[in-house]
């Protein structure tokens, strides 16, 4: 019930991944419930906030969307050094973008909070019949690093709320 809602903490969440995998589309779907097939490339990192109810507690997610086409060294650790969680996004039809997730994980292991919550999102699952990344591989990899794996689509609004809610719950647990 609304009357029992308690104000809670703010968590910093970063979205990382190759350009064109759908990071900006996922944030815009989650926060504003919109989608565009002509989503233009993100030029700078930007952030949006979303309040989410976790068991009667109002958690604020400060979601940092990055320009994925930049090399991570160019982006700089300032974006993820103090992040509570990272959502690593790849495109289910792009194997290179999945390989990039693994480089991001290595980078985060070095530069980020030791207890950072990691989630891997295989995006564009509305195009699932064209998938080239093997689902077992990606799920097994996620498990091996203690991450959760979600199939998402910003276009069909699949798995997005679930993924972000799961992130909020897990950050609350590790805090
Ligand atoms: P970013 O560079 O990672 O931020 O990716 P964008 O959000 O800019 O999306 C790149 C392109 O993929 C755009 O044309 C989007 O419309 C498209 N896109 C993003 N998410 C999805 C999705 O879930 N399904 C499909 N079919 N296209 C998507
Ligand atoms: Mg973008």
Automatic annotation (TrEMBL):
It is a lipid-anchor. It is found in: Endomembrane system. GO terms for biological process: protein transport; Rab protein signal transduction. The keyword Nucleotide-binding applies. GO terms for cellular component: endomembrane system. Keywords: GTP-binding, Lipoprotein, Membrane, Nucleotide-binding, Prenylation, Protein transport, Transport. Coiled coil: none annotated. GO terms for molecular function: GTP binding; GTPase activity. Belongs to the small GTPase superfamily. Rab family. This is Ras-related protein Rab-21. It comes from Marchantia polymorpha subsp. ruderalis. The lineage of its organism: Eukaryota, Viridiplantae, Streptophyta, Embryophyta, Marchantiophyta.
